[in-house]
Amino acid sequence: MEYQQSIKNNSGKELPSYNQKLVTNRIGLWLFLVSDSFLFGGLMISRIALWRNTRPELNQYLGLTVTFILLVSSFFMYRGESAMAVGDKKGFVRNTLVTLSLGIIFLIGVVGVEWQMAPFKASTNIYGAIFYMMTGMHAFHVLTGVIFLLVIINNGRRGVYTQEKHWAVEAAAIYWHFIDVVWVFFYPALYLIGILVH
Amino acid sequence: MENNSIESMKRYKNKVGMIVFLILTTLTIFEFVIAVSSTRLIALLILIALAKASLIIVYFMHIGKLFSGSEE
Prior knowledge:
The complex is a heterodimer. By secondary structure, chain A is mainly alpha-helical.
């Protein structure tokens, strides 16, 4: 397979094969995710230190709904990536489009609805500061994920990816699931844990 | 023959995805119910979050493939 063979450049130097590059790409992506986790970890520590065992009054049903939307989006992203892994390009585009739509709905739910309904501003108190910082930083990552999805959908439609070569699809999927993992911790930290403060 | 194996692989992957998604949904509802009924079960909420994150990392993010040089 050409993907497993090393290729020599003009000066006879052996270049890494696609599969060799895949290993370093994966390690590189995971290292980036670990470094990004420190950012979210710092926000989580701020929440624990400032809110302690309390939480502000937020719309519980909206929190649960946006959490569910993100979970469903992760499911469709998994289906999209799996479709590409078996060479089903139409299935990949279809499922990734659903993921993209759900990501946009999540953003509208948090930034467009929850931010407007929240009983405080970022400058009001520690609840506002932490709430907007955590949801804002997460929403920024969702937005970058949406852009990443747009790129792979566009490339997928043009036939750039194949069953054997689709690293970008895998990277976008892993990044999208990472956003979901972050929310898995942010959701209870913001909405569920602590005594309600009016 | 090859089409059959691709189809069965696709079906298997979809089945795994659906099972993980259903477990994640159940755990999310469970943590919501726990939080609504009591403010003291923080350790349980943390455990549920860790379980959900582990499921996503293992099954959706394929951490097992980290050092593998294959797209499979």
